[in-house]
UniProtKB/TrEMBL annotation:
It comes from Trichodelitschia bisporula. TPR repeats lie at residues 77-110. Keywords: Repeat, TPR repeat, Transferase. GO terms for cellular component: NatA complex. It comes from the Eukaryota. InterPro entries: NatA_aux_su (IPR021183), TPR-like_helical_dom_sf (IPR011990), TPR_rpt (IPR019734). Transmembrane segments: none annotated. PANTHER family: N(ALPHA)-ACETYLTRANSFERASE 15_16, ISOFORM A, N-TERMINAL ACETYLTRANSFERASE-RELATED. Residues 603-652 are annotated as: Disordered. The keyword Nucleotide-binding does not apply. Residues 609-627, 638-647 have a biased composition (Basic and acidic residues). This is N-terminal acetyltransferase catalytic subunit. GO terms for molecular function: transferase activity.
């Protein structure tokens, strides 16, 4: 039975609620405790105290108190609502929905509970439940337009487009007079309704509706684009042509408009017969605006032969004469065509300062030496040309950029290009120094600052990189510059930092960074809650629907894949070698290879002592910083921010179940990036170690379907067949064994000799270093006595044509895996240095 409150305590309880909403948690807690002294069994006050404690980070205590509140008053909607809020804060959304539904049974008229339930349902993509909740909210307050719009969005996301359009139309029919032209919500809702009609395939009706709303709509560009699209779909070509020409006038550098206009006119870039008409079309655009770049650049995509050479010559001369820095990025997309690449190369190499552009449309130079600018631009272009992977000749690139620097030694662009060339030569140390010099030439340029930090990270100089980034961060926040980069979700830096630490064998720090990327994606998913309310209230419906569709594919983002794969690799390493969980071992300071049992034991003890020392030193450092700085650190949102209790990632590394942690990264990869062969390879490695052979073979089949000749797939095929042939430590159920046997016949039949299969693979790919390494690894699995032969053949890969720096480094790492003798490694290293004399990775060994 609920305990009633006196009038005074009732007012105090309302004050608790208000203080909580104002985030004055200490005052709210104090007031709640005063009420509980007089009314110790008052469920609602206990619930509010639990909610306040949870906001202060005492989650376990908050749950205990919330359960006690429910025991005191099971029929209080406040207690059940708070219980749901606690579950939501811990991301147990299913349990939160159950609690909200129970609270609604007790208080069906509560708009707050109904709204919270609706937001949870859309967050969980429970569209049917969301529709029902939105109907209830609409029934309670039918006068609010946003309630009608939200119900329409619910039906749209559930796939019921006709119902969504019906609800929007129903509300519009209730309006006694049209809203003012400045009504943004009405403008957006009208366009959203038009989008729904178009998505239903009723193009004619969509066009007619668009005509009725276009006059007063605030998004003029969207109206024009939708009208042009509808006319094109209806095959009303004359009107569509006029519409797209109007859009081009509005934005004459937007390529999509030109492509659509070509489609309207029935012109095909792949058809040589249309090239003359296409060229005339783009020439007509130039007549009206001689500054236009798109009309000069687009024809280079479809022209061929002499026509291309003539057009490219005009385009290149004009841009070089103007000194356009982005000329090479503008044309490098053409390099996939061998003829166009060689034509551009021969044209630019043939230019001299005297053979500047001819033609009336060339820029007139009034200041400075035009000839000098042309020469510099030409040298800069050629340096980028020979640095590009499709036309790479690093010696020529170095010569050209050196000449450009002689003419203008204070150009940041030239120094940045020189740094890129050095990076491709493998000299990441010198590249970082040159990029740092470029940064010093323009200290206010954030882009160059970012590039400098990136190159320092590639040089494994994490400390200098952080110092560079600190020039543009809020260093007073908790954690300093690194803390601010985390708050700002600077994923490129965090990822590069993790990869640098992984290269240095600092597994704990690397894992810490990759886990941070994982958490950022969780935050992005959680941030949807803010937009479920904000977007509907502000009427930004089309953007909201686009956001929801983007969120559904969130973890297909390349940054997630880039962080997840090395994180999985680290967890697999921890499973294979649990000793790496000791921080100092994981950070590459101590090596256990080659140690006997007694030495190994001493090394482990030393690692533990070193880890304890580091943790103690870190704690003392944080304490000293607290004493020096009286101001409380804040996060990116201005709220007080707690210090990271595990800044080095030692606790992450000491997980008792590394493969379970790996699965957390792996599952989204397999779901959202199923065509990423590296993700499928990682899935095999994880599942085969978890003794999940069916899941492992599923990943193996997927990888083989993507690329049957992939070197990692080849190696895993052999390992899988061997695992089936050998006696398993844990017996496989008969049905599973039958499935595996059947699948194995498709992948690699039993009649096939593994040795012969591997030899044939190596013979087929004898000129590919990655395939040769894969074959040598597989031979090592099949024949332990083949080590010396494998080492000889690995050394022979250094004689392959067009061997990349990455392949050369991978070969040296493979010798380390095999624990080859120092003499063999030295011989390989000597040949590698001869091939890549500038490479930092070989200089440091």
């Amino acid at each position: 039975m609920p305990q009633p409150l006196s009038a005074k305590d009732g007012a105090a309880f309302r004050q608790v609620v208000k203080l909580y909403e104002l985030k004055q948690h200490k005052k709210a807690l104090k007031t709640a405790e005063q009420i509980l002294k007089k009314n110790p069994n008052h469920g609602d006050t206990l619930a509010m105290k639990a909610l306040t404690l949870n906001a202060q980070g005492h989650t376990d205590e908050a749950f205990s108190l919330a359960k006690l509140a429910l025991q005191q008053d099971m029929k209080s909607h406040i207690c059940w609502h708070v219980y749901g809020l606690l579950y939501r804060s811990t991301k147990q959304l299913d349990e939160a929905i159950k609690a909200y539904k129970f609270a609604l049974r007790l208080e069906p008229e509560s708009a707050q509970i109904q709204r919270d339930l609706a937001f949870l349902q859309i967050q969980m993509r429970d569209y049917n439940g969301y529709i029902e909740s939105r109907k209830a909210i609409l029934h309670a307050r039918p006068a609010l337009r946003q309630n009608w719009t939200a119900l329409a969005v619910a039906c749209h996301l559930a796939g019921d487009l006709s119902a969504a359009e019906h609800y929007l139309k129903t509300y519009e029919d209730t309006l006694k007079q049209p809203p003012p032209r400045t009504d943004m919500e009405h403008s957006e809702a009208s366009l959203y309704r038009n989008v729904l009609i178009g998505e239903m395939g009723e193009v004619e009706r969509a066009l007619a509706h668009l005509k009725t709303i276009s006059r007063n709509n605030l998004d003029r560009t969207a109206v024009m684009e939708m009208r042009a699209d509808y006319l094109l779909r209806l095959d009303r070509k004359d009107e569509a042509e006029e519409a797209y020409r109007a859009l081009i006038v509005r934005n004459n550098e937007y390529r999509l408009y030109y492509e659509k206009l070509e489609k309207v006119l029935g012109l095909d870039r792949e058809n040589p017969d249309d090239h003359a008409e296409l060229a005339a079309l783009y020439t007509s655009f130039l007549e009206g605006n001689h500054r236009l770049d798109a009309a000069r650049r687009i024809p280079l995509d479809f022209l061929r032969g002499d026509e291309f050479k003539t057009a490219a010559d005009k385009y290149l001369r004009r841009s070089l004469a103007k000194g356009v820095p982005s000329l090479f990025p503008n044309v490098k997309a053409l390099y996939s065509d061998d003829f166009k690449r060689t034509t551009i190369q021969s044209l630019v190499e043939g230019y001299t300062s005297e053979t500047q552009a001819d033609g009336e449309d060339m820029p007139q130079h009034t200041n400075g030496d035009a000839s000098s600018k042309f020469v510099q631009s030409r040298l800069y272009f050629l340096a980028q040309h020979y640095n590009y992977f499709r036309s790479r000749n690093l010696k020529k690139a170095t010569d050209f950029i050196s000449q450009a620097l002689e003419m203008d030694p204070k150009s940041p662009d030239y120094h940045m290009t020189k740094a890129r060339i050095l990076k491709h030569l493998g000299d990441v140390e010198q590249a970082a120094e040159v990029m740092s010099f470029a940064r010093e030439l323009d200290t206010k340029d954030r882009y160059i600052n970012t590039k400098c930090a990136k190159y320092q990270l590639r040089n494994n100089d994490c400390e200098s990189a952080l110092k560079t980034m600190s020039l543009f961060t809020r260093n007073e926040s908790v954690g300093g510059a690194l803390g601010d980069l985390h708050d700002m979700q600077c994923m490129w830096y965090i990822t590069e930092d993790g990869e640098a630490n992984l290269r240095m064998d600092k597994l704990s720090l690397a894992l810490k960074r990759f886990k941070c990327i994982y958490d950022i994606f969780d935050v992005w998913q959680e941030d949807q809650f803010d937009f479920h309310y904000f977007s509907i209230r502000k009427g930004q419906i089309r953007a909201y629907v686009d956001m929801m569709r983007w969120e559904d594919q969130l973890r297909s983002h390349p940054f997630f894949t880039r962080a997840a794969l090395p994180a999985i690799k680290i967890y697999v390493m921890l499973h294979d070698n649990p000793d790496l969980s000791h921080g100092h071992l994981a950070n590459g300071s101590i090596k256990l290879e080659g140690l006997d049992a007694a030495e190994r034991k001493r090394a482990l003890k030393k690692a533990k002592r070193e880890q304890e020392r580091l943790e103690k030193a870190e704690a003392e450092k944080r304490e000293a910083e607290k004493k020096q700085t009286k101001k409380t650190g804040t996060g990116g949102d201005g709220e007080p921010k707690k210090e990271d209790p595990d800044p080095h990632g030692f606790q992450l590394l000491q997980t008792p179940a590394p493969l379970d942690e790996a699965v957390k990264f792996l599952t989204p990869l397999l779901e959202f990036a199923p065509k990423n062969i590296t993700a499928q390879n990682a899935g095999f490695e994880v599942f085969i170690r978890r003794n999940k052979p069916l899941l492992a073979v599923k990943c193996l089949r997927a990888a083989k379907s993507l690329d049957p000749e992939d070197p990692v797939v080849h190696e895993q095929l052999i390992r899988f067949r061997r695992s089936l042939d050998s006696t398993s430590a844990s017996p496989i159920p008969d049905k599973v064994a039958q499935v595996l046997k059947s699948v194995s016949q498709d992948l690699l039949p039993d009649s096939t000799s593994l040795t012969a299969f591997n030899d044939a693979f190596m013979a087929k790919h004898a000129s590919s270093a990655p395939h040769v390494r894969s074959g040598l690894r597989a031979r090592g699995y099949l024949d332990a006595s083949s080590k010396e032969r494998n080492e000889e053949e690995l050394l022979a890969t250094l004689d392959l044509v067009d061997l990349s720096l990455e392949d050369t480094q991978a070969g040296l790492e493979l010798l380390g895996e095999w624990k080859s003798s120092k003499a063999v490694q030295d011989e390989y290293l000597a040949k590698a240095k001869a091939l890549w004399p500038e490479a930092t990775s070989f200089k440091r060994r």
